[in-house]
Write the structure tokens for this entry.
Amino acid sequence: MENESFIRSLPKAELHVHIEGTLEPELMFALAARNDIALPFASVEDIRVAFRFSNLQSFLDIYYQGAQVLITEQDFYDMMMAYLERANADGVRRTEIFFDPQTHTERGIDFATFMNGFSSAIDDATTRWGLSVGLIMCFLRHLSPDDALATWHQSEPFRDQLLGIGLDSSEIGNPPELFSEPFRLAREAGLHVVAHAGEEGPPSFIAGAIDELHAERIDHGVRCEDDPALVERLAALQIPLTMCPLSNIKLKVFEDLSDHSLKRLLDQGVMVTINSDDPSYFGGYVLANYVAVAQALDLTRDDLITLARNSIEASFLDDAGKATLLAELATIAAA
Ligand code: HPA
Ligand code: ZN
């Protein structure tokens, strides 16, 4: 498709992808066999059938179950490498990747096991493809703020491998301000901070993430539309929203892609970006998300260029890194 090769050619940043959500059924099966772990699925086809969700929680239950097959440093390397290879093929030049340490430490896996696996794969991908990669450690908001604090302290020896921290998992009933303390410590340590907000939760959670956690980007944020004053504020402050359209359809945040708020918010000057969230579970990596939205919302070539530019501007690359990608994008835009 014409759009697809054009979008692939645009230098892009991916800013919202959970590495545990990139675990493809085939690799899940291979790791289960390698580690002698029983899966409650008989086949890869069975897993794909189970990937039918009614809301965020129904997905999270299966997502946390899938992560149980990850045991060794090699497992974390293989999962990370598979994602980086795929992102590179989609024309991603910079990726800022979420991981959920508590999903692994809760099962007795050492911090060093996943951090070393991630870092080796990132080193190899950087050398091989010139990809630029950052890691964002997320706290699971269905666990307690004390658990998040303990995780923050546990991450100390690996601090220089972290770009930032984030907040994910079950949103309803778990407002952002509960996590003010670990977020304050992370900011004081010089890390970037982002938070999931307004995926299923109300617009007040978006405001809370900005005001109480000082989040620099909002992950999802699609429900800001319920509060026009908040939309104006997001546009005025140019606070990026890392949207994940295919995720929103799979988790029934919108019934149909044609209902999605992305284009309406783009037209109101909000800095929206397109990302994949949990591509293995939601049926598409970042390029597929761009292609689906371009078709459903009739995006123009200029819209697509704006979305790629937003992704670079909204990234935590330094100014020189952004300038390189923006110059390349400007050349394509002028062609
Ligand atoms: N929302 C909240 N938590 C998550 C998600 C999401 O879309 N994906 C992985 N963890
Ligand atoms: Zn997410």
